[in-house]
Specification:
Blueprint lengths: L1 H4 L2 H26 L5 H15 L7 H13 L3 H30 L4 H17 L10 H14 L2 H28 L5 H13 L12 H12 L4 H29 L4 H12 L1 H13 L1
Helix pairs in contact: 2-3, 2-5, 2-8, 3-4, 3-11, 4-5, 4-12, 5-6, 5-8, 5-9, 8-9, 8-11, 9-10, 10-11
Keywords: Antibiotic resistance, Cell membrane, Lipid metabolism, Membrane, Transferase, Transmembrane, Transmembrane helix
EC number: 2.3.2.3
Membrane topology: Multi-pass membrane protein
Length: about 290
């Protein structure tokens, strides 16, 4: 904490690039889901998601993100879930792509496995709409058709470009930390380390991925030649900043777009399937 606030120039840099990364994510989501909804709705939805993921031990912020988009965007629950799920899917594909490029360039033994999985995932995503098995499920067909309509248009490249740029900008946090500590590491290497760290946090059982983030980030930096102690220090420092940012941005959203915890809990339960199971049990009791 002392190191962060005693170097205000780098702290300001971290704030700017990290905030910009979320603005680009917001812009990509709005282009995909519909520009008739205000930019602020998308932004606050992402902000709430970030806050919830840094408070609760499991990653359920997307439930709140979905609920806000449904409530303030005038969308159905199905439409909201679809757009949030697609944004997460594109995030992971881009992170996996960046990670794969780095693994291949470093010549790690697992590089061929990574590239094969990424290639297969991309092909399946691109051709899913045409598979006979998929056509047996009208719900899946409808959503895959909408996905292809959007992503194969001119907007698709813009969406992918904005999401990619957002992850490059997020790597600016670890870039600043490395400069503050006095380590020597190239910008592209840090983009790779950041991508590997975020991709490694698909699931976590601690608020904000405490432990998972540090182990993945320090391990990635160690592979790039950074001493283990310095790598762990950089991971701690960057994660501390991200926690402070999540709470600050979430507090701003609470002021600008207040929500009750009961409402957020309902959305989280709905995404995790708890509401469905409870409603079924309620019907059985009434019967």
């Amino acid at each position: 904490m002392e190191l962060l606030f005693h170097q205000p120039n780098w702290l300001a840099f971290m704030l700017i690039v990290y905030l910009a990364s979320f603005l680009f994510k917001t812009a990509a989501w709005r282009i995909y889901a519909g520009q008739e909804v205000k930019f602020a709705v998308y932004f606050h939805a992402i902000s709430y998601s970030l806050l919830v993921n840094h408070i609760l031990p499991i990653k359920v912020g997307d439930g709140v993100r979905t609920g806000i988009f449904m409530k303030y965007g005038g969308k159905s629950w199905e439409e909201a879930v679809h757009s949030v799920a697609v944004m997460r899917l594109l995030d992971m594909l881009i992170l996996a792509g960046i990670g794969g490029i780095g693994i291949v360039r470093m010549g790690l033994p697992s590089s061929w496995i990574w590239v094969t999985l990424l290639a297969c995932s991309t092909v399946m995503l691109a051709t899913a709409h045409y598979l006979p098995v998929i056509r047996k499920f009208p719900f899946v067909v409808k959503h895959s058709a909408y996905f292809q309509l959007k992503m194969l248009s001119g907007k698709g490249l813009v969406i992918l470009g904005l999401i990619t740029l957002s992850w490059v900008l997020e790597a600016g946090v670890i870039f600043a930390v490395v400069q503050m500590i006095g380590l020597q590491l190239g910008s592209m290497a840090l983009v790779w380390a950041n991508s590997m760290t975020i991709a490694g946090q698909i699931f976590h059982i601690t608020p904000g991925g405490i432990g998972t983030y540090e182990s993945t980030m320090s391990g990635s930096l160690a592979l790039l030649g950074i001493d283990g102690k310095d790598a762990y220090r950089a991971a701690l420092l960057s994660h501390t900043f991200k926690f402070l940012f999540a709470y600050s941005l979430g507090g701003y959203s609470l002021l600008r777009m207040p929500l009750h915890w009961r409402e957020m809990k309902t959305w989280i339960r709905r995404v995790t399937g708890q509401t469905k199971s409870r409603s079924h049990s309620k019907v059985r009791k009434e019967d």
